[in-house]
Amino acid sequence: MRVEFSNSIREIDSADWDSVVRASGAPVFYEHAYISAYEQAPLTNADYSGVFVVRDGEKPVAVLPVYLQKAANPLRRLHEVHPEAVGQPVLLSHVWHCYDAHVPATADVVPRLLDALTRAASIFEARWWGFVNVERGNALSRELAAAGLPARHLTDRWTTELTTWERYLAGLGIRARANLRRNERRSREAGVTIEVLQVEHADLDEISLLCTKTAMRFDTSGFYPGSTFTKFVTALGNLVHVIEVRQHGRLVAAGVCLADATRFHTWTCGIDYAVDGRYSPYGVLFAESVKLAIRLGKTTLEGGRGNDDFKRRYGLTPRHLDAVLIRT
Question: What is the pLDDT of residues 248-275, one digit of tens each?
């Protein structure tokens, strides 16, 4: 086997890359189109980015994107748990907009890639290197622990398994189930409409503005930078399903969702709570996200990070995410 490094994922054949991602069961954040979109329209600026490919002969058996970042820490959590890394360059895999870190591989290559990351961190003069948003206890987490890399808790992401809408509702508490049904009824009475769109038919500029306002409300401004957000989502193409919730034509909620083989990711959303009527636009968007995931045949709903109380109430389970970093 040999480890190759490229300055751009566009130097790597997309079929080769995605064959590893899909065979390994890695999420949509590792698909060629996603990483390529991030190169074209980086939502957080990296000082440098590149990709590793491990080949057995000519056959790719592992892939990994990396990003050299000196200040980009949009959720600020990395420096909360690693204050000693403040102001120092760090070589990370993956970007902050991926909340489920993997090493997509069809062979036992993690030790080789860790050696490659060590060398790359030295070449790029990164003081730290490692992974963020590693699910505690998963295969990658165990391999990193076995290699002696320390883990510190960053945040949680929220998931639930899906079969049918009726079974999803049956698994909720009585009050949560009644709330969803009442919210659906009230939203219809208030003249709310819901539309699921492909990316080319969505009003991404309007959605970007709403997502930015919502991020500011939760003190994460800068996580979805205006025109860059629109370019990034457009570049994702058919990976995206956009949900628009409107009241009398006005956008009151929007979700940009991603899908892979088994998972439906409610990747980001924007909400305007100043609505007419006693309903929650976020509740409408969430319910439609679950229904759309089921219609698409996805068995896992990935609810992303944050809004913990709501997600727990509506049946999602936390997955603890760690930063696994080591000083060079």
Answer: 999 999 999 999 999 999 999 999 999 9
Query: Which residue reads 């890394």 in tokens?
Result: 85
CB 272 within 8 A of CB 280: no
**2-156+321-327 and 163-298: same fold?**
yes
- Angle in degrees, 0-180, between the axes of helices 281-295 and 174-189, rounded to the nearest 10: 100
Residue type, 42: P
Kindly write down the DSSP assignment for every residue of 211-272, as one continuous string: HHHHHHHTT-TTSS-HHHHHHHHHHHGGGEEEEEEEETTEEEEEEEEEE-SSEEEEEEEEE-
pLDDT tens column, 272-284: 999 999 999 999 9
Q: Give the sheet arrangement for strand 263-271, strand by strand.
A: 2-6, 48-56, 59-69, 90-93, 128-135, 317-327, 151-161, 300-305, 263-271, 250-259, 240-247, 192-197
pLDDT for residue 130 is more than 90: yes
Domain at 2-156+321-327, CATH class: alpha beta
CATH says 163-298 is which class?
A: alpha beta
Residue spans per domain, the chain = 2-156+321-327, 163-298
Note the pLDDT tens digit of each residue in 67-117: 998 876 766 788 889 999 888 999 999 998 999 999 999 999 999 999 999
| Measured CA distances, 121 to 64, 68, 256, 293 (Å) | 14, 8, 34, 39
Q: On the CB side of 326, how many CA atoms lie within 13 Å of its CA?
A: 15
Report how far residue 7's alpha carbon sits from residue 80's, in angstroms, rounded to the nearest whole number.
Answer: 30
For residues 207-229, give the mean pLDDT. 80
